[in-house]
Design brief:
single chain; 354 residues; alpha/beta; Aldehyde Dehydrogenase, Chain A, domain 2; 3 domains
């Protein structure tokens, strides 16, 4: 049985299950707050998948320990987006805009940190700012009337404002945005681009979960990789470069559950691929073959293929049994062909010996 904490897709889910011949009660919708979730965790369910904050993830792991319930954690992120000199700048700019500002940054795999090689930094930032300043924000009165919307909760709005304000006071500069946009009664924080951010600023290592892009200048691959890995998180990452060898070399060194080369977010959209993170971004995987297997109990069953097997009689131990066991292990596991042939010869002799 599966339990969700939202009724948003209940009708669609019911119809899909019934169409495939399953009971719609296979998926149970449970609405509630923290106490509801805590009760579910302690109930002895067979598996828990949690998507949310690191702090709440810790609470769920603590609660699941009572019944040793296996858990999958998909937690926060502070995803890096690396722009190499070999990248298509126009493509890199638009991918970065989408990576940071889609859903107004309220996305666990949002590209919050843009790491740009110094040789193309000025060109990239100029193009980026030109596009970002023109993003339309507001309440959509018709399809296509706005590019970005609002923040979902007052708590998140306050967190974004606090992190950005603190960074600006510490010396960061806002090329775009940086101040709350008053649009009616909505919670609108504008798309914001910050530069001159230093690693000691809280915003540099804390998940913002909002429309705030941090742009860093890096000298080379080594610095880009070090800065990309310099957070507690490791969910998603992006490398922009038309040099395939370079892009794959960088991707192999990023501490993340996934890396997209020359695009953003396609790793998640491809549901055949496993999705999940490392470090404080969680553990376990969703989607793909690994994700499906995570919700099964794998069991090994062994049977004789040809109707006969190893003789089961072990006792009493005979003088030559130790030698037979030793040479059998060598025959199966030795990396030396010579040793395996010698062991086969010895086993033959032992078998013929009465």
């Amino acid at each position: 049985m599966v339990a969700w904490s939202s009724s948003r897709f209940q009708r669609i889910t019911d119809q899909a299950l019934e169409k495939e011949g399953f009971s719609k009660d296979l998926v149970q919708i449970i609405n509630g707050y923290g106490d509801t979730g805590a009760a579910l965790v302690r109930s002895g369910v067979q598996k828990i998948l949690f998507i949310g904050s690191v702090n709440n993830g810790r609470r769920i792991i603590e609660g699941s320990a009572e019944h040793l319930t296996p858990v999958v954690m998909e937690l926060g992120g502070k995803d890096p987006f690396i722009v190499c000199p070999e990248a298509d700048m126009e493509r890199a700019v638009h991918s970065a805009l989408g990576g940071t500002f889609i859903n107004l940054g309220q996305n666990c795999i949002a590209s919050e940190r843009i790491l740009v090689f110094d040789t193309v930094y000025d060109q990239f930032v100029q193009k980026l700012s030109q596009h970002a300043v023109g993003l339309r924000q507001g309440v959509p009165d018709r399809k296509g009337s706005v590019d970005v919307g609002a923040i979902t909760s007052p708590h998140q709005m306050a967190l974004i404002e606090r992190l950005v304000s603190a960074a600006l006071k510490q010396g960061a500069r806002a090329l775009v945005g940086g101040e709350i946009k008053r649009i009616g009664n909505g919670q609108f924080y504008p798309p914001t681009i910050l530069v001159d951010v230093t690693p000691d600023m809280e915003i540099a290592y804390s998940e913002v979960f909002g429309p705030v892009m941090l742009v860093f200048k890096v000298r080379d691959e080594t610095e880009a990789i070090e800065l990309a890995n310099a957070t507690e998180f490791g969910l998603h990452s992006t490398v922009m470069s038309n040099d395939r060898e370079q892009a794959e070399r960088i991707a192999a060194q990023l501490e993340a559950g996934a890396t997209c080369i020359n695009d953003f977010g396609l790793c998640y959209l491809n549901q055949d691929l496993p999705f999940g993170g490392v470090k404080y971004s969680g553990f376990g995987r969703m989607n793909g073959r690994d994700g499906l297997r995570a919700y099964t109990n794998q069991k090994a069953v062994l049977a004789d293929r040809f109707g006969f097997g190893v003789p089961p009689k072990l006792f009493p131990v005979k003088p030559g049994d130790y030698d037979k066991g030793r040479e059998t292990v060598r025959l199966i596991f030795s990396r030396s062909l010579t040793q395996r042939l010698l062991s086969l010869l010895k086993l033959t002799r032992l078998a013929l010996k009465k």
